[in-house]
Amino acid sequence: MIVQVQYLEIRSSYSLLTFPLTVLNREWVIAELAIIMAGGVVVHVSFNITNARDVYDTISTAECRSVFIDPGKGDEYLDIILQLNECIVKDSNISSLMFLRKSKHLTSYDDVAGVLQSKDENEVEFPKLYPEDVIVIFTTSGSTGNPKLIPKTHFHTTNNDNLYSGKTYNDRSFAWSSGSPIRTVYLGEPRVFCDSSIAIAGRNTMKIWEIIKEEQCTSALLLPYFLSDLAANEENYKEPLKLDVFITGGQPVYNLHTKVFGVFTKTLVVAYGSTEGFRVSMLPPITAPGETQASDVGKPIPGTEMKIIDGDGNVLRKHENGELCIRSMYDFEKYYKNTELMTTSFCLESGFVLGILRTSMNTII
Question: Which of 62, 132, 341, 347 has minimal Cβ neighbours within 10 Å of its Cβ?
Fold first, then answer.
């Protein structure tokens, strides 16, 4: 790892990790930790496989010095890499482009494995870092427009506890706040994941379940689609093993998904959040099939405050529609280099982040 840090020479600068959204591999983890150990800031970007311009726009905004990119297991992303390279060569701020894994076609570029095999190890002076320093910049999905840049500090990273301790299987993309390997390292809890070639392939649910059993995981963070696939196999599953807990969210959860309770897991927990605020709300643990209400995302987690206001900023009563405002110790402080969005997305008087229209209830609907 020290070889990688010395090679990068990215202290106090921004380095971009760009990849197809679903990538999960060891090279990603090595590159991300090397950037952080060098005192740099990781910028996550999932690229559009038909257009490199969105990636370059993020590179320019974040003023990245280095770019790490996944060429794909079979070099399937070479076209977009060549498009991106045309933009990068004109940018004097970018000093290096490196592949996460070796390319069979673009052999002139360094790759993570090749750099780690270098025998040229030197003394490295690690930088001083403080809680308020940015460690990573996440990008939102872009579903409401151009992806937003969400800076997270060392304080944010170290003050997000796991829902449950022990060895956890986590299928979240490394680019998402709930899947970032940074949190895994800080918390010191073992994490199991599959290479993306396995995780995203169809009909692999039971194969992944066998891996979860073999690794003796006690909990698993799974998307609802995976729970649906498990539920479809409930009648054929006769083994006594059940995990202590499944954690799910990110998509609506219905009664169908609760069928995994009592067969594959002892408890099912549903939690929701955002890139800006991380975990926001949670339902009570589900301990019986069918215990869920469509669109119910639970109550605010400890450390999170919410209120619903009208257009004039007045707090509304229950059952009145308005703007949902959220404030939390987990919240980010500002959008990166986007003053206009800060003005429209924050209630400056109270510091609450403005959300979308909701109905004020005992739970959030």
Answer: 132
Residue 271 lies in a domain: yes
| 23-48: average pLDDT | 79
Mean pLDDT, rounded, for 151-164: 78
The rounded percent of the chain whose pLDDT value lies above 70 is 81
Q: How far is CA 247 from CA 4, 107, 164, 287, 349, in A?
A: 35, 42, 9, 13, 35
Q: Is 362 exposed, middle or buried (0-12, 13-18, 19+ CB in 10 A)?
A: exposed
The rounded distance, in Å, linking the Cα atoms of 151 and 276 is 9
Residues 6+ apart with CB under 8 A from 327: 304, 305, 306, 350, 351, 352, 353
Residues 21 and 114 in one domain: yes
3-state helix, strand, coil in the chain (%, to 5): 25, 25, 50
Edge-first strand order for the sheet with 278-282 is 191-192, 168-170, 219-221, 245-248, 268-274, 278-282, 299-300
Q: How many domains does the chain have?
A: 3
Q: Domain range spanning residue 66?
A: 2-139
